[in-house]
Amino acid sequence: MAETTVQKASKQELPQTSERVPLLRARGLVKAFSGTVAVSNVDIDVERGQVVAVVGENGAGKTTLKNLLVGILEPDKGFIELEGQRISHFHAADLGIAAVHQEFSLFPSLSVAENVCITDLPGRRWSVNWRKTKEVAKHYLDMIGADLDLDTPVEGLSTGEQQLVEIAKALRQATRILILDEPTTSLSEPERERLFQVIHRLREMELGIIYISHFIDEVYEIADTAVVLRDGHRVGGGPVSHLPKAKLEELMVGRPITELKKEIGTPSDAVMLRVEGFTSEPFFRNISFELHQGEILALFGLMGAGRTELVESIYGLRKAKGRLWVRGQEIAKPTPPTMRQLGVGFLPEDRRRNGLFAIRSLKENLTAAAIDLLVDRVIPGFGFRNEKKRAEEIAKKLNIVHAGIERPIRYLSGGNQQKALLGRWLATGAKVLILDEPTRGVDIGAKDEIHSLIAQLARSGSAVLMVSSELPELLRLAHRIMVLRKGMIVAEFTQDEFDPKEIIRYAASEQEIRHGNG
Amino acid sequence: MAMVERKNFLQSILNSIRGARWLIVLGGIFLLGLAFSLLSPAFLQFRNLQNIIVQASVTGIMAVGMTFVIMTAGIDISVGGILYLTLVLATGLALKMGTGGIFAGTIIYLIAILLGTILGLVNGLLINFVGINPLVVTLATLSVYRGLAIHINKAGITIPPESARFLGIGKILGVPVPLLLAILVTFIGALILSRTRFGRYALAIGASSTSAYQSGLPVRPVLIAVYAIAGLCAGLAGLILMGRVGAVQTDMGIGIEFTVITAVVLGGTLLSGGRASILGSLLGAILLVMIDNGLNLMHASAFIYDIVRGSVLIGAVLIDRASALELFRNWFSLRNLKVSNQRKIST
């Protein structure tokens, strides 16, 4: 707690009272989503003219914390004080709090000017003063040095430009506190520089700034103090000047790498999946690798590094240039149905949206991809008598806790749902598994079970390509780790070379490319 | 405590309603049948029951087809247009070919069913390959199909050959053919839904089309096929209607999509997709037709039926929504809260 009360030398003489009371003070914030605790007992203080960095791995609870601070979510426990006054059920804009969200809140078909001013269009009661709107928009865009055509619909802009519009929009609302959630992920280098200049200026204007990021270098570049989150808990923090980089990295990576290393067997030489020159601008370029039978190959990288885009392209969910072989057979144009037929399974990152059939039964969720294998031969094409038996087998094998296999899967816990989605591919007997964040949002117990399962799959000869932003899990499971940064493989580590700090460094900071020895 | 028990009781009732909707609809049919037969002596007359059966077969068969569309979270409002256009084209072609005798009927049947499937296929292709919202596509094709039909038909009346009326007025072993057809279509539909890959895929797509796609299921072919099925059923239903009326006239199938969709939703199929009941759709159609018929017999204004039908649709959708359940839940928890607050104050 002591580390947070460190006061930054104030630039200006302020009245005693407000000197004592921090601009924003939150204590003991707790937020859980259907049983999963996203933010657990987190404190945060923001002084006037201070930049507080909130850092942590993906899924550490950063975005949930942001949503609590801007009133999108209400905390289950704890409180937030703004200038000494408790606030709850508030409308952030009324209090001078604004956030630049990671997922844009822009209206694609409206113009740049309209988007910047949309929360409060200038004009009389029922009319809009368009000239004024443009003036206002221009003022805020100029502040961040964004030279955009005010009349262009936002959908016509690049992601980086949209980000600038989003920032300008937030600037207009932010009279007290500005929260930036991973603002640089889609910015070019000059745009990033400009944003940092703006932040410096806002700091001089006595605004409180919360800067959410997982780029460690940025923290040292811009922040005064840092709050490190891990698994929803505040695990450390304090003035950045007293926080060596190595310490911060360690805090982020978290628990000492457990000796619970899984028995993952030895891969064979047989190439199950081969990718050559995969490119899809601006997400990734020139990606080549081979995945062997019995191997667990991990793709590590930060959000926005292009991991998900890469594996989605391999599975045929996105277009990409390059060549692809599955078990020696070249696939000209991968699509999910053809990949399924070839024995490739895919576990999506967003389980709820892209994996589950929420209102259908556990049984049907388990057999969805394997139903052609289960069709009865007696009356061709009609009925699947073995379905229930097969589903029960898998549910038992994966230790899925359920209250009846015919009950909708949405009643299951996140961990059990995720196991069921893995089970869906088990049912097909898929030999190549592409797993995107297989343990995101599942509790520790289920996580361990999923790890064991993946290890077991590899031992029995499946090839696994696994994406995760949780390094400990990859260190436990993988034979090989490839580090993806800004769409390129910048390093490759084999099992005996695993070094968490080294891997994080390649993923997070500007570092030269490391050439794997294999 | 009593409050909690009551809450659970209410919840379980609501849950069971959502679980076995067709039973509720069946109960509704009997209750309503009883009420109408008491209110109007004409209701139970043979002729009237026959009317209901034919009309319910037409609506019911279309509802079975529509169920496949709605279970994928789609909608097809062009079925009335398909019904009319297939009849105009089929009778027109048959008469032009000059086929008379007993084969005229068979030829008209084949052409109408084939055309219905094709027109449905056009819907499916437009929705899937042009990527337009099903509501917009079928609203457009409804207008196109009907306009085309009236243009071809010169807004006239075509009298089909007598042999083509079998599906409407024929009997096999004393059982009206429309009834047999409705039962057959429902049976096949239920079989497809529960026993084939296609049915499974359709439900999965309705539950989450992105999940279905990412699981490697053939999303597009299924989404095209369901509209073809709806078209086929509309073509078949038209043949029954034509046989019954003995003519092909411009008012055929006008507004029927509304009754059909209401029947499907009433039967327990979710408009948002992913859950469906074929039998429910048929029973829903029977219930709606009965309401229409009963109100007619009671000399109610024709618009009363519209009011009732609309209300039934809203009621059915409300039961489907989890939020209806939530509403009850919240209402009770709110009352519990108030009670406990009062207690606090008083102690």
TrEMBL record, chain A:
GO function terms (MF aspect): ATP binding; ATP hydrolysis activity
Source organism of this protein record: Fervidicoccus fontis
CDD domains noted in UniProt: ABC_Carb_Monos_I (cd03216), ABC_Carb_Monos_II (cd03215)
Organism classification: Archaea, Thermoproteota, Thermoprotei, Fervidicoccales, Fervidicoccaceae
Keywords: ATP-binding, Cell membrane, Membrane, Nucleotide-binding, Repeat, Sugar transport, Translocase, Transport
UniProt xrefs under SMART domains: AAA
Stretches that traverse the bilayer: none
Name of the protein in its database record: Sugar ABC transporter ATP-binding protein
Pfam family, one: ABC_tran
Top-level taxon of origin: Archaea
InterPro entries, alphabetized: AAA+_ATPase, ABC_carbohydrate_import_ATPase, ABC_transporter-like_ATP-bd, ABC_transporter-like_CS, P-loop_NTPase
Domain ABC transporter: 24-256, 266-511
